[in-house]
């Protein structure tokens, strides 16, 4: 019964491709996305507060429920170049074979559900959330014009990946004073990963296998501090621990129809966030900085070939994320918002080849949104997002047959693999505030 409920929630809140900063969602919900994801020190809505700083939900003195649904589209493109080798001598001919493949994945849904229970005069505030907070995915069809997508064993053929992480949180915030709050949020996670071909498995004579979708569960927590001066200035800090997962257990099928199993550990990285906010009658300003610790996260910290020619991990570096947002409140019942997000690239050049299944790295993202406050209870939100990877992520094609002294990853001389992408999204949100009706005599 519990498994059925969890899977039903996962299907409802799954996100096929939502990579913004590394494989981390830059924001949650239409309001938080429209502020560039900045919310650690400026809780404008409950979804952003629950995602980035559990202490900041103390800013809400009502019972509020919020649902956001978005449509997300990405357009990764994969390029590769390899030298041609003489079939008799095995030596380079001096000619090169190049091509590119466009992703043919369609639009992906992106929902988020949040609720906060606050009460004026109470030092305690509670919250609950179900967010799709992470994911990556590509669908590059087999191609005879792009060497990386040529049929195995000459290339990898059809390349497809699909990683999704649903996080459920239960949050408690406590007001130490009228200015300071603390918060804690235990988190429960459910993820799936599908890879074709599966580079974490050992290849056989026919190449690498395709893996059926595997699942894993994980736990973690988030802790936060929030300060509201009462005169407009606000500040916050939070720490999301590493989300420790069980291993993915893959059922693999090779091109020769033989089968095998393998396991792969992939956790979610720890995130340290700092935020500043300022508010007056006309504007709300928000600025966040985050550090994402990929270098100490299983599945991302290790990289390279194993002794059996499988891939040991993604090999990502730590990244920094800067989020900024402005809300203008000068139009009655129609607050307007602008947001920007910058993220460094976690993929080093020497391991770009290992990260073809996870190409969705967005360097610059821009958001435009607004809300319509229909009445004291109902509020409608909308945001449009556009993101770009900036410069393409690139490196050399790797092959364990080329491993040697001074070439530990087997880089093929004269080769190159690269990928870039843009993303776009439109998201709608609706929130309802439960206001008690005042009785009159």
TrEMBL record:
Highest taxon of the source? Bacteria
Provide the leader sequence positions: 1-21
UniProt main location, coarse: membrane
The places in or outside the cell where this protein is found are: Cell outer membrane
What topology does the record note for this protein and the membrane? Multi-pass membrane protein
Stored InterPro entries: OMPP1/FadL/TodX
Q: Which Pfam families match?
A: Toluene_X (PF03349)
- List UniProt keywords, sorted A-Z: Cell outer membrane, Membrane, Signal, Transmembrane, Transmembrane beta strand
Q: Which family does it belong to?
A: Belongs to the OmpP1/FadL family.
Q: What is this protein called?
A: Outer membrane protein transport protein
Q: Which species does this protein come from? A: Algibacter agarivorans
Q: Taxonomic classification, please?
A: Bacteria, Pseudomonadati, Bacteroidota, Flavobacteriia, Flavobacteriales
